[in-house]
Structure formats: structure tokens, C-alpha cells
Design a protein that fits this description.
Elements: E1 18-19, E2 21-26, E3 32-37, E4 40-44, E5 49-54, H1 59-67, E6 69-74, H2 80-86, E7 104-105, E8 114-115, E9 120-132, E10 135-147, E11 152-153, E12 156-157, E13 166-169, E14 172-174
Antiparallel strand pairs: 1-13, 2-3, 2-6, 4-5, 5-10, 6-9, 7-8, 9-10, 11-12, 13-14
The structure holds flavin mononucleotide (FMN).
Flavin mononucleotide binds at residues 20, 33, 35-39, 53-55, 58-60, 83-84, 87-92, 135, 167.
């Protein structure tokens, strides 16, 4: 076996594909904005915490710092256009929800709503924030977790019932196989 060497900055693509989420946050008037994010990982079960790497340049970063909550909305493979749209424009200059078919549902525990068409939606309060290079690690505490009915086998996704959207990088996506390999 031989390896090719790539630029260290391109390592990010070697950790993908990753599930894609739209992070929803609100401004001080309650107006929602969504941003596509793939750099997302759990960090704790008890308390239930997740980290999302958000560049301080994003409008979403500003909104979360201000409102101190957000929702994480996992997409399926039919939502690739929404992933690209919410990941290509800034809420600073356009109302992305007004220009999309996605609908919003009022959350129970946080100000930010969640997306009605998502596979999974997590209501998160801001737990902490950490500088991490050109992105910041934004840690959310999962206050409520919802998944569309009929998609789970026990606690985990049934791959024959749901096609999670997975981001490879460079505008390319894939999804899961229909069956388990083990
Ligand atoms: C598939 C995909 C994944 C992305 N993942 C992230 C991410 O994890 N963190 C991030 O800061 N930006 C990510 N982006 C870029 C933001 O979604 C993009 O800059 C967006 O326009 C920011 O919107 P906002 O300014 O309304 O917050 C991603 C974009 C795409 C298309």
C-alpha cells in the first residue's frame, strides 16, 4: 500500500462524509435564520452536549451569542438544494426562510424554532463557547430531541427507512446504503 500526501489544510475532507444540519437561530425580534453546518459532533451524553464549529464570520455566530440558543436540524438526501442554499447566502443580506419551502415549528424550551421537514431536530441552549482557530466551538446542551416517526430501529436510524444527507466537501454529497453491513 502506498500513500499520497495532501496539504494539511485539506485534512477536513478526509473526515467526511458527515451528516448535514441546518442550524436555526433568531435575532432580537425573533426573526429566524438558518445556516448549513457539517462540522458537528456530540461531546457528552450526560449532560447531553454537542459541538458545532461555527466561523465567527457567520451571521449565525452573532445571533447565537446574542440569543444563547439554537436548533440543530438534520437533513435527508431530498434536501440537498436546501443545504446548498442555506450554506451559500448570509442571513445578514437575505431572509433565507422566506425564500425557501422549509417551514418552522415553535420550540418548547428555546427561542429558536426547528424545521418541520427535518429528519431530526434538537433544541439546544448555549452551554459554552471556545475559540478554535478560524472557527469557534459552540457547545449546545440538548434540551429536547425529536425524530420523525417510523425512522428508528431501537435508538438508531434504520438505513432502509431514512437516507441521511452526507456532505463530502466541494459541493458534493452522498447518502447511506439501504442496509446494515454488520
Ligand atoms: C454543506 C455545507 C456545510 C457547511 N458547514 C459549515 C460549518 O460546519 N461551519 C460553518 O461555520 N460554516 C459552514 N458552512 C458555511 C455556512 O453555511 C455559510 O457560510 C452560510 O452562508 C452562513 O450563513 P449565515 O451568515 O446566515 O450564518 C457550510 C456550508 C455548506 C454548503
Amino acid at each position: 500500500m502506498s500513500f499520497i500526501e495532501i496539504k494539511p489544510r485539506s485534512f477536513v475532507y478526509l473526515l467526511q462524509p458527515k451528516p448535514v444540519a441546518i442550524i436555526v437561530s433568531v435575532d432580537s425580534d425573533g426573526k429566524p435564520n438558518g445556516m448549513t453546518a457539517a462540522w458537528l459532533t456530540p461531546t457528552s451524553r450526560d449532560p447531553p452536549l454537542l459541538a458545532v464549529a461555527i466561523s465567527p464570520k457567520r451571521y449565525t455566530y452573532e445571533l447565537i451569542k446574542q440569543s444563547r440558543d439554537f436548533t440543530v436540524n438534520i437533513l435527508d438526501a431530498s434536501m440537498v438544494n436546501e443545504s446548498e442554499f442555506f450554506g451559500s447566502y448570509s442571513g445578514k443580506s437575505i431572509d433565507k426562510f422566506k425564500n425557501s419551502r422549509l417551514t418552522l415549528i415553535k420550540s418548547k424550551t428555546v427561542k429558536s424554532p426547528y424545521i418541520g421537514e427535518a429528519v431530526t431536530a434538537l433544541e439546544c441552549s448555549l452551554y459554552s463557547e471556545h475559540p478554535a482557530g478560524d472557527h469557534a466551538l459552540v457547545i449546545g446542551k440538548v434540551e429536547k430531541a425529536y425524530v420523525r416517526e417510523g425512522l428508528l430501529e431501537g435508538d438508531i436510524y434504520d438505513p432502509s427507512k431514512v437516507k441521511i444527507l452526507l456532505y463530502l466537501g466541494g459541493g458534493k454529497y452522498t447518502t447511506t446504503l439501504d442496509k446494515l453491513i454488520t
